[in-house]
Amino acid sequence: MRAKVSTVLAFLAAPKLWLIIFFILPMMTMVLYSFWRVADYQIVADFTLRNYQKIGGNLYVNVFLSTIRLSLYVTALSLLIGYPVAYFLARKVRRFRLTLLLLVILPLWTSYLVRTYAWMLILGTQGVVNQALMSLGLIDAPFTALLYSDVAVTIALVHIYMPYLILPLYAVLEKIDPSVLEAAWDLGGGRLRTFLSVILPLSLPGIASGCLFVFIPSMGAFVTPELLGGTRSIMIGSIIAQQFGVAYEYPFGSAMALVLMGLIFAAAAATLRYGRPRGTA
Amino acid sequence: MTRRDPAKLVLGAWTGVVLLFLFAPLVIVAIFSVNDSTISRFPMSGLTLGWYRKLFGNAALHAALVNSLIIAFATVVLSCSLGILSAVGIHRYGGRLAGGLRAFSLTPMMVPRLVIGIALLSFYNLLQADLSLLTVIAGHVVMTLPYVILITSARLVGFDKSLEEAAWDLGAGTFTIFREITVPFLKPAIVAAALMSFTLSFDEVVVTFFTTGNDNTLPMIIWSMLRFGITPEVNAIATITVLITGLFAVVAELSLRQAQART
């Protein structure tokens, strides 16, 4: 089948053009702005490295570090919680498999804003958890430290992004050939041994992409730390967002966003490199 | 093997707990939306639909709902047309470049919404463009396009190319083939992709926050209400949006599944 050049262009160019105009050019604008500065509430095209030097200060380095730490916690927890679920769906159920899978996907379709908000109701001073503890007589006064803390932000981010980890993991686990497992059994590998030396290595690609699907949005989280973090748990997303609000520090905000993207790309490159399946399979 | 599998029991129970963790918070929001006290706490003093009634009388909310719908519909139309063209184009003409082209199309997925939003804001700022619903729609299309391409590409994997070739041999033109053969085959994926981009756009707050001018959307109203604390109306709006998007998800999933069963 031969097609005219114009047809090929129509199919390929139109969508690419949209991404170039509304995604690539905006990203390049940020690169440009990150080397400019603000004077008298105007962005001035005046080359400077000051924005990047400012990020090197203690304050911002600490926020970056705590954002990385919190995102790693969220990713690790999601993996620990999600792996058994993906394994169960892929290898242990038949009859209700599709229904259960739908239930896991369903929350992904609901608003992350609403799901963040739900944790305000649960963890707040007047929230469900405090009331339950008080009515059981376990505590006399409500915990005020539940909401507006790293713990609240971590729980909500796990809640919001964990299903993204289950999906690719499920896809990989489902494809493992049962005969491979039977072979491992026949060779005398126990359950644990088979899991550790056969299933786990084979599922590494799913673990890698699943972890990225959780780590990336966590690093850039803005709504969740803003609503649940208060002044005690500050993530870089909130600081970046502030620069694009009344602070009107687009150049500094752009520089921070680019450092964030650099960290994300480094994490993605490392994860995808080490997430290849090992062994002969 | 028919013997009892203890691992299956343990894993099944764990899956149940995880599903509870995923759904209980949403159920709690829904329960409080019919609570007749202004304080969201148990035990509830009584039931009411008053918060829902109050929403219907709220003019600002009406305007926001209309804006959200305009943005979502425009996003669906643009994102699905561009996404289908892109997926089909890559599938047909991509050749050796197919992998790279697809990866490029999916990059916005790898960028946090916050960065998509502020990058667009910087771009509009540089161009001194006025922020409006149009600037929001442009951003929502960037955000939803990868999902459309992903869903349609997955369906195209099972596409029998000989159908197109037969039509070509019988003298049909490229666009006739596209309209009469490719699109009907893709229909279930298009339905799913449309519903998915609708919900993604309808629920989006971060990209909208940075790219909108004076126009509010429904999630933006929820967002501004939440910054002043919890009010019972939020429970009602939240419950309505969750129910709508939940319904869409089920329809989309069934559409894809029926198609899989048929082919």
From TrEMBL, chain A:
<feature type="transmembrane region" description="Helical">
    <location>
        <begin position="193"/>
        <end position="215"/>
    </location>
</feature>
<comment type="similarity">
    <text>Belongs to the binding-protein-dependent transport system permease family. CysTW subfamily.</text>
</comment>
<keyword id="KW-1003">Cell membrane</keyword>
<keyword id="KW-0472">Membrane</keyword>
<dbReference type="InterPro" id="IPR000515">
    <property type="entry name" value="MetI-like"/>
</dbReference>
<feature type="transmembrane region" description="Helical">
    <location>
        <begin position="7"/>
        <end position="36"/>
    </location>
</feature>
<protein>
    <submittedName>
        <fullName>ABC transporter permease</fullName>
    </submittedName>
</protein>
<feature type="transmembrane region" description="Helical">
    <location>
        <begin position="151"/>
        <end position="173"/>
    </location>
</feature>
<dbReference type="Pfam" id="PF00528">
    <property type="entry name" value="BPD_transp_1"/>
</dbReference>
<keyword id="KW-0812">Transmembrane</keyword>
<keyword id="KW-0813">Transport</keyword>
<feature type="transmembrane region" description="Helical">
    <location>
        <begin position="70"/>
        <end position="89"/>
    </location>
</feature>
<keyword id="KW-1133">Transmembrane helix</keyword>
<dbReference type="GO" id="GO:0005886">
    <property type="term" value="C:plasma membrane"/>
</dbReference>
<feature type="transmembrane region" description="Helical">
    <location>
        <begin position="252"/>
        <end position="272"/>
    </location>
</feature>
<feature type="transmembrane region" description="Helical">
    <location>
        <begin position="96"/>
        <end position="112"/>
    </location>
</feature>
<feature type="domain" description="ABC transmembrane type-1">
    <location>
        <begin position="64"/>
        <end position="273"/>
    </location>
</feature>
<dbReference type="GO" id="GO:0055085">
    <property type="term" value="P:transmembrane transport"/>
</dbReference>
<dbReference type="InterPro" id="IPR035906">
    <property type="entry name" value="MetI-like_sf"/>
</dbReference>
From TrEMBL, chain B:
<feature type="transmembrane region" description="Helical">
    <location>
        <begin position="189"/>
        <end position="210"/>
    </location>
</feature>
<keyword id="KW-0472">Membrane</keyword>
<dbReference type="GO" id="GO:0005886">
    <property type="term" value="C:plasma membrane"/>
</dbReference>
<keyword id="KW-0812">Transmembrane</keyword>
<keyword id="KW-1003">Cell membrane</keyword>
<feature type="transmembrane region" description="Helical">
    <location>
        <begin position="12"/>
        <end position="34"/>
    </location>
</feature>
<feature type="transmembrane region" description="Helical">
    <location>
        <begin position="234"/>
        <end position="256"/>
    </location>
</feature>
<comment type="similarity">
    <text>Belongs to the binding-protein-dependent transport system permease family. CysTW subfamily.</text>
</comment>
<feature type="transmembrane region" description="Helical">
    <location>
        <begin position="133"/>
        <end position="152"/>
    </location>
</feature>
<dbReference type="InterPro" id="IPR051789">
    <property type="entry name" value="Bact_Polyamine_Transport"/>
</dbReference>
<feature type="transmembrane region" description="Helical">
    <location>
        <begin position="59"/>
        <end position="90"/>
    </location>
</feature>
<keyword id="KW-0813">Transport</keyword>
<dbReference type="GO" id="GO:0055085">
    <property type="term" value="P:transmembrane transport"/>
</dbReference>
<dbReference type="InterPro" id="IPR035906">
    <property type="entry name" value="MetI-like_sf"/>
</dbReference>
<keyword id="KW-1133">Transmembrane helix</keyword>
<dbReference type="InterPro" id="IPR000515">
    <property type="entry name" value="MetI-like"/>
</dbReference>
<feature type="domain" description="ABC transmembrane type-1">
    <location>
        <begin position="65"/>
        <end position="252"/>
    </location>
</feature>
<feature type="transmembrane region" description="Helical">
    <location>
        <begin position="110"/>
        <end position="127"/>
    </location>
</feature>
<dbReference type="Pfam" id="PF00528">
    <property type="entry name" value="BPD_transp_1"/>
</dbReference>
<protein>
    <submittedName>
        <fullName>ABC transporter permease</fullName>
    </submittedName>
</protein>
